[in-house]
């Protein structure tokens, strides 16, 4: 059983009250006896996403003293870092805020790990680091060429991690994913970003009567129906990859970079049609101009994660992903405010 080695370990989950972090917490906590400690400044996360009995500290990753206190108090064996600012477009408008929160914050975290002798680190990187990659699907060895401050913050951390391994013996895994989507099978937790920018929750808001239509940015791309193709990975599949990566780090004591994608991708129209089928709502769409910087196709393959981590996606169709998101959204029409 792949979770076995983790049972006695203490895992510090930074940003564990956010969308992906909360799904990881749910998966880890239901697998039994790991000690989970979440810290999050709740700038975007939701206290109500945290299951009863899980330790939680309201702290900011840019607060060195708070980190020192946390590491002294809990003595974690491994750290997973989900926290940070996540909007590619916002990062273009306010790059300094992004470099501070994502880069400076993670440096402080790594310094605390070094001081307290914590060796294992798992980082939420992003397929955005590949920019306008020419070869599709993007492979594990493709060359990063970030084209936004957000993506650059992720790539900078990847480089810092490589140098930190060299200097201090830190062992790390970077998971490069994009378009996390869907919701936990219980229907208790799901995606609740503010502002929401992701296609699936925005489309489901139309079905809920919270917006009139969904915008399709460009329908004249060189794709099967003219709309952009993106890779959608279910959030529980991402959570499983994190757990496998933790196991791998502890077992192999080696650093590694993994893409997490489906290698297939769906057009914007296919996602909207899936939402129509799942909800039974007509979901009107409006075609608007292309957005600057949107490549026609962005899909990533996960050969290395499949081979080395034995990672397999459970959610293989866009319908199953949208159906899980719908189960959450139709019972939490105002997100976590409904609990
Ligand atoms: N959502 C996606 O599709 C996606 C894709 C690729 C990569 N990622 C990366 O995955 C990670 C998690 O994404 P998410 O969608 O769950 O985002 P999220 O905003 O839901 O979660 C991030 C969490 O970090 C917390 N946080 C932010 N700044 C903090 C700080 N200074 N101190 C402490 N806590 C802080 C927020 O309160 C929030 O709970 C991010 O690093 C993101 O860049 C996300």
UniProtKB/TrEMBL annotation:
A GO molecular-function annotation: UDP-glucose 4-epimerase activity
Pfam families named in the record: Epimerase
Domain NAD-dependent epimerase/dehydratase intervals: 11-261
UniProt-listed InterPro entries: Epimerase_deHydtase, NAD(P)-bd_dom_sf, UDP_G4E
Cofactor annotation: NAD(+)
Gene Ontology BP term (one): galactose metabolic process
Keywords attached to this entry: Carbohydrate metabolism, Isomerase, NAD
Keyword NAD recorded: yes
EC code: 5.1.3.2
Annotated CDD domains: UDP_G4E_1_SDR_e
Reaction it catalyzes: UDP-alpha-D-glucose = UDP-alpha-D-galactose
Primary enzyme class: isomerase
Record pathway: Carbohydrate metabolism; galactose metabolism
Quaternary structure and partners: Homodimer.
Family classification: Belongs to the NAD(P)-dependent epimerase/dehydratase family.
NCBIfam families: galE (TIGR01179)
Protein name: UDP-glucose 4-epimerase
Organism: Dentiscutata erythropus
Lineage: Eukaryota, Fungi, Fungi incertae sedis, Mucoromycota, Glomeromycotina
């Amino acid at each position: 059983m792949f979770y076995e080695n983790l049972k006695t370990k203490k895992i510090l989950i930074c940003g564990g009250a956010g969308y992906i972090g909360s799904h990881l917490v749910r998966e880890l906590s239901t697998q039994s006896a790991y000690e989970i400690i979440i810290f999050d400044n709740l700038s975007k996360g939701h206290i109500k996403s945290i299951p009863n009995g899980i330790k939680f500290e309201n702290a900011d990753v840019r607060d060195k003293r708070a980190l020192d206190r946390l590491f002294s108090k809990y003595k974690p064996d491994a750290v997973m870092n989900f926290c940070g600012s996540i909007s590619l477009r916002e990062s273009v408008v306010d790059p300094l805020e992004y470099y501070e929160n994502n880069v400076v914050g993670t440096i402080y975290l790594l310094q605390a790990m070094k001081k307290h002798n914590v060796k294992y680190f798992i980082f939420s990187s992003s397929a955005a680091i590949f920019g306008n990659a020419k070869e599709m699907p993007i492979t594990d060895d493709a060359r990063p060429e970030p084209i936004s401050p957000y993506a650059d913050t992720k790539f900078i951390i990847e480089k810092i991690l490589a140098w930190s391994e060299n200097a201090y013996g830190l062992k790390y895994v970077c998971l490069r994913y994009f378009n996390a989507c869907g919701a936990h099978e219980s229907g208790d937790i799901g995606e609740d970003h503010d502002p929401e920018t992701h296609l699936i929750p925005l489309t489901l808001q139309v079905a809920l009567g919270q917006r009139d239509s969904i915008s399709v940015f460009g329908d004249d791309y060189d794709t099967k129906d003219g709309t952009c193709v993106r890779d959608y990975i279910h959030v529980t599949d991402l959570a499983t990859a994190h757990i496998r990566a933790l196991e791998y780090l502890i077992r192999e004591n080696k650093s590694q970079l993994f893409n997490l994608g489906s290698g297939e991708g769906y057009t914007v129209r296919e996602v909207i049609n899936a939402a129509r089928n799942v909800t039974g709502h007509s979901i009107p769409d409006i075609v608007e101009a292309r957005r600057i910087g949107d490549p026609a196709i962005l899909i990533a393959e996960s050969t290395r994660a499949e081979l080395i981590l034995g990672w397999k996606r459970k959610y293989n169709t866009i319908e199953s992903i949208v159906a899980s998101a719908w189960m959450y959204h139709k019972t939490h029409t105002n997100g976590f405010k409904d609990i």
